[in-house]
């Protein structure tokens, strides 16, 4: 069902191009809106996955390596 809606939406957006400048404006506004919303959702996901004050094991291992290298 999602595929059908995607095909219909793509067809509708393709038809908008033939309406001249107004159709192109609407099409570009839709595309920019989708891209902006995608970035907002991606930022929200990143905030949930990566904690701000969390322990960074890679950074700790790198600092340990540098301390061992300096000691030798």
Protein described:
The chain has 72 residues and is mainly alpha-helical. It has one domain (2-71). Helices cover 83% and strands 0% of the residues. Helix 1 (2-17) crosses helix 2 (21-49). 0% of the residues are buried.
The SSE string, one letter per element, is: HHH
Task: Work out the strand percent.
Answer: under 5%
Q: How many domains make up the 3D coordinates?
A: 1
Proportion of helical residues? over 70%
Q: Using the CA coordinates, give the radius of gyration.
A: 24 Å
Q: What structural class is derived from the secondary structure elements?
A: mainly alpha
- Per DSSP E runs of 2 or more residues, the count of β-strands stands at 0
Uncertain segments of ≥5 residues (pLDDT<50)?
A: none
Number of helices: 3
Q: How is this fold's topology laid out?
A:
Elements: H1 2-17, H2 21-49, H3 57-71
Helix pairs in contact: 1-2
Features:
mainly alpha; 72 residues; rod-shaped; 83% helix
Short description:
With about 70 residues, this protein is an all-alpha fold. It has three helices and no strands.
């Amino acid at each position: 069902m999602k595929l059908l809606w995607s095909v219909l939406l793509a067809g509708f957006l393709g038809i908008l191009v033939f309406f001249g400048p107004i159709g192109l404006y609407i099409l570009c506004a839709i595309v920019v809106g989708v891209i902006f919303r995608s970035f907002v959702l991606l930022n929200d996901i990143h905030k949930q996955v990566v904690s701000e004050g969390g322990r960074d094991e890679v950074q700790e291992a790198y600092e340990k390596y540098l301390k061992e290298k300096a000691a030798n």
